Amino acid sequence: MQRKKEPIISLHGLHVVRVRNKIAAIELENAQMQQRLRCKMCLCKELSIVFLPCGHLLACEQCGVNTITCLACKVAVTRHVKFTI
């Protein structure tokens, strides 16, 4: 009687799968973090303007300098401060 051959998964193979899964998770986290750092108005450039007095960081320089009301809290913006991450 012939025995069925069952697939043998090596420890190395399991390690490779775990490493690939970890890499995929880190890449996803990186993409999400980069998205959080994007201007909430144009969605293209990096955040760089803090609105005062509220302190929200929501816009790039090009979009932010012309903003008169904060997008998050609707407070009148009295000053724009350049911020570098």
Automatic annotation (TrEMBL):
Gene3D superfamilies: Death Domain, Fas (1.10.533.10), Inhibitor Of Apoptosis Protein (2mihbC-IAP-1), Chain A (1.10.1170.10)
Full protein name: RING-type domain-containing protein
Lineage: Eukaryota, Metazoa, Spiralia, Lophotrochozoa, Mollusca
